[in-house]
Amino acid sequence: MLVFDFCLSLSLQVKENGKLYADLAQSSFDNGEPFQNQPQPEGDDGIPTICYCGSEPVVATAYTEKDPGRRYFTCNNVVDGATHIWKWWDDAVMEEMRDFQTEIRRIKEAVAEREKRYC
Fold first, then answer.
1. For the chain, how far is it from start to end, CA to CA, in angstroms?
2. Are the beta carbons of 48 and 34 closer than 8 angstroms?
3. What gap in Å lies between CA 69 and CA 51, rounded to an integer?
4. What is the pTM of this model?
5. In 3-state terms, what secondary structure has residue 1?
6. So where are the chain's domains?
7. Which domain of life is it from (predicted)?
8. SS (H, E, C) 15-45
9. Structural contact between residues 86 and 72, judged by C-beta atoms closer than 8 angstroms
10. Each residue of 42-85: pLDDT tens digit?
């Protein structure tokens, strides 16, 4: 009887963990982002150009209930269990656009400063 109770308890824990992981696997705009690796010193801002494993990132499409058709960057080697790149495509593009806007603003300010000096 003790072994049966233990197996039943273990079975319930496995089911609960399964529900938890299933919930975590579903991502959405409203519930925040799924786990993403912490930014590295060389910078993870914008469109990723290389995975942590050294491979080139690829674009894939989410088929989850909450994000059907949403695109994201990932790695072809993701099945090996190591740490790999994962980032929403639209977030990466928005970061890239923000960086371009910042650079354009900086250039405009530099041009305006030079015009003041020489004109």
1. 93
2. no
3. 22
4. 0.57
5. coil
6. 45-118
7. Eukaryota
8. HHHHHHHHHHHCCCCCCCCCCCCCCCCCCCC
9. yes
10. 457 899 999 999 999 999 999 999 999 999 999 999 888 888 99
